[in-house]
Design goal:
Shape: globular
CATH topology: Nucleoside Triphosphate Pyrophosphohydrolase
Helix content: 10-25%
Low-confidence stretches: 196-208
Strand content: 35-45%
Number of strands: 11
Structural class: mainly beta
Length: 208
């Protein structure tokens, strides 16, 4: 177990102020995910899901950010992130403080997708997130920011076979690959994660 020497700090407002409120065109990526933040008792926390067990899903059982593939009806990536967030954990735009902030569009190598990453703050009176579809989401939990600074090596099935990877383990949940890399980058931890690994939900893309 290897902790980072100095975990990053800063309020949610400080974190979000680094990113604009904008909506990239849908064509800029094939999927979108949401970084939903709240103030925990001692640290900023981020909302994560654990995917349901499904032998046909390459991300089965994996920890991820709420998100999924773009639909033609979405109009833009921010709407994709909002739709998937509501479908998976029951949160809508009205549960957030203001609008989503666009963080980046990053490549998820495992699925050959560019993924739009958005961030927002949960309202103090917002709804409590919970799995909306047990067939897709098994658990919902909050991860303290400082947990991302503690690295463990765990074996995972990757695109190059079963190998040890850098991971964050919290409450029995194992976070690794693309999602951990996205969050460490967002919070300002050094980038150390491998570029392979499951990402999040893999909905079937819309027909051409």
């Amino acid at each position: 177990m290897t902790p980072d020497p100095a975990p990053p700090s800063g309020s949610i407002d400080d974190l979000l102020a680094r990113y604009p409120v904008e909506r990239p065109p849908t064509s800029s990526a094939g999927a979108a995910v949401s970084i939903v933040l709240r103030d925990g008792e001692t640290d900023v926390e981020v909302l994560l899901i654990e995917r349901a067990s499904d032998p046909d899903d390459p991300a089965s059982g994996q920890v991820a950010l709420p998100g999924g593939h773009v639909s033609e009806e979405d109009g833009n990536l921010a709407q994709t992130a909002l739709r998937e967030m509501e479908e998976e954990v029951g949160l809508a735009q009205g549960d957030l403080v203001g609008e989503f902030h666009y963080v980046a569009t990053l490549h998820a190598r495992r699925f050959g997708l560019d993924v739009g990453v958005f961030a927002g703050r949960l309202r103090p009176d917002g709804r409590i997130p919970a799995p909306r579809s047990p067939a897709e989401v098994a658990h919902v939990f909050w991860l303290p920011r400082a947990s991302l600074g503690i690295t463990q090596r765990v074996e995972r099935d990757t695109t190059v076979g079963i190998v040890p990877v850098n991971a964050t383990v919290h409450g029995g949940h194992v976070l690794w690959g693309f999602t951990r890399r996205v969050l460490r980058q967002f919070f300002g931890f050094p980038i150390e994660d491998e570029t392979f690994g499951p990402v999040y939900v893999t909905h079937a893309p819309p027909p051409p």
